[in-house]
Design brief:
Layout: E1 12-16, H1 24-38, E2 43-50, E3 62-67, H2 71-83, E4 88-93, H3 105-112, E5 117-121, H4 130-142, E6 145-148, H5 153-161, E7 168-170, H6 184-191, E8 198-203, H7 212-225, E9 229-234, H8 239-245, H9 248-259, E10 266-269, H10 275-284, E11 287-290, H11 301-308, E12 312-316, H12 319-324, E13 331-333, H13 338-349, H14 352-365, H15 371-389
């Protein structure tokens, strides 16, 4: 990407979910906003998306609110954003965040907005419905630029959706800066009460698509070779799963643990982790596991964090894992294959030099993903759009 145009310091507003809402997009929006602000980039604030019935107290970063299902809220926000004096609006897009059929109310805002919009697509489906294909194409056509978090999304948008690849820009998923120091794993384990344990972990919102049962079934043979092993499953049940089936999935996992006699070796922690806690648990982890079942998943914040923390990862062959773990930065296994997970874990845990080499390669390859670098990449893109926009702003 080219350098920032001379004399152009883009002024940016952001639209997305935002803490205290507990979801990955809220964390991403907050981290991008703070990274842009920390780099000295002018920001006009955040427009936070609220789902129906939500009552939240936001901090001073949130200047506007968008009622997800109210069409008039989109109209009012477009007017407010145009009057705010921003050069660019950065929109975080995920299915379920915006109202209307498949989130099509976002198009209503884009149609009324004069300020150039940059839409970051956090999901790009490989086999969308006809309506989703048309909607995604319309979102890209209505924005000044589109950002994707995986390189594989660029040809996917071109081939499946008919999006002009010249308008699509790859900027990696941001990660916190984690310093690897000698003894940090040992010290973190001690602080968490895990001294002497070999720690495997999986984080995130829990639901059937995570495939955690396949890891649990892989563990008996691994435990026989490593009696100190502990598999930690950290995260709340996904809100959608809770609405439709309650804690059925988590309870089925707990039942499987009991059936296999693994109570000493599997721990469930149903908290939503903030970023500091997540990094702390990653530092204590020996191998991070992602047995996800969706081969089309093209972004994962937890995988980005694991690689950025220099963790050895064993993952199924979903799109983002194939991209991020290439070059010996992780191990891939077939979907729903507990035996393959067993073999990978036995090999890694039985060959500490190989595990350390994988950790080093993952850490070194992910430095471009640190938030200051990611914010600089966004700033370069925003600056290219800022100059022509300044003549169109509503006073």
């Amino acid at each position: 990407m080219s350098a920032v145009p001379a004399g152009i310091e883009p002024v940016v507003a952001l639209l997305g979910s935002f803490p205290p809402r507990e979801c990955g997009i809220a964390t991403f929006t907050r981290d991008l906003f703070h990274a842009l602000s920390a780099g000295g980039h002018a920001t006009r604030g955040v427009a936070a998306i609220d789902e129906p019935g939500a009552v939240r107290r936001y901090g001073p970063d949130v200047r506007w609110r968008l009622d997800q299902d109210d069409p008039r809220s989109y109209d009012h926000l477009a007017t407010a954003l145009d009057r705010a004096g921003a050069d660019v609006l950065s929109i975080q897009h995920e299915f379920g965040l915006f109202g209307g059929h498949d989130g099509e109310l976002l198009l209503r805002l884009l149609d009324r907005l004069v300020t150039p919009a940059v839409v970051t697509l956090h999901t790009v489906l490989g086999a969308p419905s006809g309506h989703l294909r048309q909607l995604t194409r319309a979102l890209c056509d209505s924005s000044a630029a589109t950002v994707v978090l995986a390189r594989a999304a660029i040809p996917l948008l071109a081939d499946v959706y008919g999006v002009d690849p010249a308008k699509v820009h790859y900027i990696p998923h941001g990660i916190p800066t984690v310093k690897r120091t000698r003894g940090s794993r040992r010290r973190t384990k001690a602080a968490l009460g895990l001294s002497g344990r070999t720690v495997l972990s999986t984080f995130g919102l829990i639901g059937p698509s995570k495939g955690i049962e396949h890891v649990i079934r892989a563990l008996p043979e691994v435990v026989r070779a490593h009696p100190d092993l502990l598999y930690v499953v950290l995260g709340q049940t996904h809100p959608g799963q809770l609405r439709h089936a309650g804690e059925e999935y988590r309870e089925s996992l707990q039942g499987l643990v009991a059936e296999l006699g693994l109570e000493r070796h599997v721990r469930f922690d149903a908290r939503y982790l903030d970023q500091d806690e997540l990094v702390r648990w990653l530092l204590a982890t020996d191998v991070y596991l992602m047995p996800y079942l969706d081969p089309e998943q093209i972004v994962s914040g937890t995988l980005a964090y694991a690689v950025g923390s220099g963790k050895a990862v064993v993952a199924t062959q979903f799109r983002y894992a194939r991209e991020l773990l290439s070059g010996g930065r992780g191990e891939l296994v077939p979907f729903r294959d507990s035996d393959a997970i067993t073999r990978k874990l036995l090999r890694l845990l039985g060959d500490r030099p190989a595990l350390a080499g994988m950790e080093r390669r993952a850490y070194e390859a992910s430095r471009e993903m640190e938030w200051p670098n990611v914010a600089a990449a966004y700033r370069r893109l925003f600056a290219r759009l800022a100059a022509p926009a300044r003549g169109q702003r509503i006073a």
